[in-house]
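Hypothesis: this fold can be encoded by more than one sequence.
Test: take the structure tokens below, design a sequence, compare later.
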């Protein structure tokens, strides 16, 4: 029986308020409006950014909401004006849009877009197609993949190969693409260079993979969890350093290990203190440090002389990828065994155990948990 044009009732993990576990609810998903697409979510990764918004980011992000932004699914129906998608298409929703027409999209200097969902944060409720118990439920990042169905804008969706396994390539909607691209596109790691990656979750391991793909000769993986050592080396790290094993600051340790600092460092922990450590671990004359971990409620600082003397400090958003055009290529690279994806997945759980997935992540027991609907 066709559901086109009708409200769909389905299960979703609803975050009713900050710092409280999500609950599984029956929600209503309205039909897509002009230039929108409704899709059945098949699988979604559980990213640290979802945890951050719920437990660390504060009320300004909007509650109640449905989190999740690393999913993959199948188009159920399309709204008026949609020309690039049809029911049955395999797709990945994107938290970074690409309209292809704005000043940002037409520039090769950025992967951002003026139509990004978060540009107009004051109208989150009016843009949502979710309701539950008579209340509007905000769609986090315009994706909300912790739901069996979701509605996204056409400019924030990309079609992928019909043969792609959705329970694997969903991870290319955020974590893997972000870390891998941060090394290749943002840092622009060079062959023969020395790199350090701070934080070995999925994003950090993907950054290690990117450094190796770029031809780095030495990749130092840094994490306070000693159990991450073997995993880091599986992705290409040549060294593993645990800051807890040293009495001196980790940046001093790395400076000594590399005779003056690494050429490139990537901070993937989302910790402002680690961001400074990562910068100060680079070579003073030409080191490049990239902030990848998401933080928006704390300030980061350094001594101006650290930049005056030649270091470069910059950030990376979704790995610098132009989303709509790049994600299908990353899927193809995975299918052609050019990049790892399966190796990131340590747990697979049903949607009902989403809170357990958070626990696994925060305790360091998982790299990526995939929720299957």
């Amino acid at each position: 029986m066709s559901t086109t044009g009708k409200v769909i009732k389905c299960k979703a993990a609803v975050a009713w308020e900050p710092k409280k576990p999500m609950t599984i609810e029956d929600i209503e998903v309205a039909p897509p409006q002009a230039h929108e697409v409704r899709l059945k979510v098949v699988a979604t990764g559980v990213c640290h950014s979802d945890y951050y918004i719920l437990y660390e980011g504060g009320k300004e992000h909007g509650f109640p909401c449905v989190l999740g932004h690393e999913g993959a699914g199948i188009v159920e129906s399309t709204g008026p004006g949609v020309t690039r998608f049809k029911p049955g298409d395999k797709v990945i929703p994107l938290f970074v849009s690409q309209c292809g027409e704005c000043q940002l999209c037409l520039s090769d200097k950025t992967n951002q877009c003026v139509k990004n969902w978060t540009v107009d944060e004051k109208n989150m409720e009016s843009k949502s197609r979710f309701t539950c118990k008579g209340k509007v439920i905000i769609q986090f990042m315009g994706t909300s993949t912790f739901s069996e169905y979701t509605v996204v804008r056409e400019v924030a969706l990309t079609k992928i190969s019909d043969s792609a396994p959705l329970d694997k390539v969903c991870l290319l909607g955020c974590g893997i693409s972000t870390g891998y691209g941060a090394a290749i596109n943002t840092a622009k790691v060079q062959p023969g260079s020395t790199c350090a990656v701070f934080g070995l979750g999925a994003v950090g391991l993907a950054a290690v993979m990117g450094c190796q793909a770029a031809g780095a000769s030495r990749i130092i993986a840094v994490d306070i969890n000693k159990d991450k050592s073997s995993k880091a080396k599986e992705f290409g790290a040549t060294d593993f350093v645990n800051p807890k094993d040293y009495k001196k600051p980790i940046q001093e340790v790395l400076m000594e290990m590399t005779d003056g600092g690494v050429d490139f460092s990537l901070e993937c922990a989302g910790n402002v203190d680690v961001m400074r450590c990562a910068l100060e671990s680079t070579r003073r004359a030409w080191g490049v440090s990239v902030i990848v971990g998401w933080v928006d409620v704390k300030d980061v600082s350094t001594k101006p002389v650290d930049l005056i003397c030649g270091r470069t400090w910059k950030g990376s958003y979704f790995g610098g990828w132009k989303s709509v055009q790049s994600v299908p290529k990353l899927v193809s690279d995975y299918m052609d065994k050019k990049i790892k994806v399966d190796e990131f997945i340590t747990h697979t759980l049903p949607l009902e155990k989403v809170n357990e997935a958070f626990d696994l992540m925060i305790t360091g027991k998982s790299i990526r948990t995939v929720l299957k609907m």
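The radius of gyration is 20 Å. Residues 348 and 370 are 5 Å apart (CA to CA).
Hypothesis status: open.
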